[in-house]
From TrEMBL:
Coiled coil: none annotated. The lineage of its organism: Bacteria, Bacillati, Bacillota, Clostridia, Lachnospirales. It comes from Enterocloster citroniae. This is Sporulation initiation factor Spo0A C-terminal domain-containing protein. GO terms for biological process: regulation of sporulation resulting in formation of a cellular spore. It comes from the Bacteria.
């Protein structure tokens, strides 16, 4: 039996805040919703553009392009604000800012592994 990730919105909020993001970024809510969708169906991470972005776009009544762009903006914010923390979450060196789907994968993998947030920048 596969282990189902155990994390909630408050852990997502804590993690995004540590990465320098806050609620005024549209991508903040999109990222939160994406991570919760991935928690319910981990296969979504393998088909971000066909599964995840359309579902988020539907929920927030916007386009898939808007979803991707706003998550990309959040990834840029994290990369500019806390590159060391982002690399720590990834578990390896990052030579450049992660793409939107890589950013989601990094956050999801960390939240799935940790169960509890014990991150220090």
């Amino acid at each position: 039996m596969l282990h189902k990730p155990v994390f909630d919105s408050s852990e997502i909020h804590t993690l995004l805040t540590l990465l320098g993001a806050d609620l005024h970024y549209i991508g903040y809510r999109y990222t939160e919703y994406a991570l919760l969708l991935m928690k319910e169906d981990e296969e979504c991470i393998h088909s971000v553009t066909k599964c995840l972005y359309p579902e988020i776009a539907k929920q927030y009544q916007t386009s898939c392009n808007s979803v991707e762009r706003n998550i990309r903006t959040l990834s840029q914010v994290a990369w500019r604000s806390e590159p060391r923390l982002l690399q720590k979450l990834a578990g390896h060196r990052l030579d450049r800012r992660p793409t939107s789907s890589q950013f989601l994968a990094i956050l999801f993998a960390y939240l799935s592994r940790s169960g509890n947030l014990k991150i220090q920048a």
